[in-house]
């Protein structure tokens, strides 16, 4: 009974500890602006940003651009997960595939993908396609590496046992390697999710074509600083909420791993 009563207090305390850095930043932000250390043109007050939020929300200046950016991020991420997981499993299973893809992954994985924005815009235009493919290009290599390391860690005894019982190769991939490497795949997905958002937002800032990044740069062009900070906060909150959702999803899907 005492433990049951202590749970709400514990959750409240954990929430306060988690939100402490954000509250500290807001307090310092408001103090700097109220004391006049920074001009409102460069750093508006917290109140001015909050006041700007509601007109933008009612005027569909938040939901619509955010929906466009999320569509591009998730579409590109889905392509990266499908292709990256398949290539990672194949690299772990077949030496010929590993020989073909390993130099490409080693070369492209550390490369700054944002440098390819002009090329993608030149090839695919400024609309959805260029952003989706850029996100996929940015996220596919972490997914390949994560899946490969997960599949490579599978015990050879399991694979030999499956082969001895006449299990086809495609079932070895789908029923042994993929489930065994699922923790690494989920971890790779958690890493690439913010990368997908960053890639989509940045590509929109550079190339336009709608979305939160493009809307923010348009506001900055006309020195609408409170609007710019609203979009920055939207980006931060989007990344935070998606990361929390990804953490809960991992706990639910990999409950067996935690119990083990």
Number of strands: 0
**Can you identify the CATH superfamily of the largest domain?**
MetI-like
What is the number of helices? 12
* Low-pLDDT windows of residues: none
Structure class: mainly alpha
Q: What is the total domain count? A: 2
Oligomer: single chain
The portion of residues assigned to helices is over 70%
Beta-strand residue fraction:
under 5%
CA distance, first residue to last residue: 28 Å
Question: Helix and strand layout, with pairings?
Answer:
Layout: H1 2-34, H2 46-58, H3 63-93, H4 95-108, H5 117-124, H6 128-152, H7 156-164, H8 169-180, H9 182-207, H10 212-221, H11 225-253, H12 255-259
Question: Mind explaining what this structure looks like?
Answer:
Helix 3 (63-93) packs parallel to helix 6 (128-152) and helix 3 packs across helix 9 (182-207). This protein has two domains: 1-37, no CATH class; 45-259, MetI-like fold (Orthogonal Bundle). The radius of gyration is 23 Å and the shape is globular. The model has no long low-confidence stretch (mean pLDDT 86). The chain has helices at residues 2-34, 46-58, 63-93, 95-108, 117-124, 128-152, 156-164, 169-180, 182-207, 212-221, 225-253, 255-259. It is built from twelve helices and no strands. 83% of the residues lie in helices and 0% in strands. The protein is an all-alpha fold and 260 residues long.
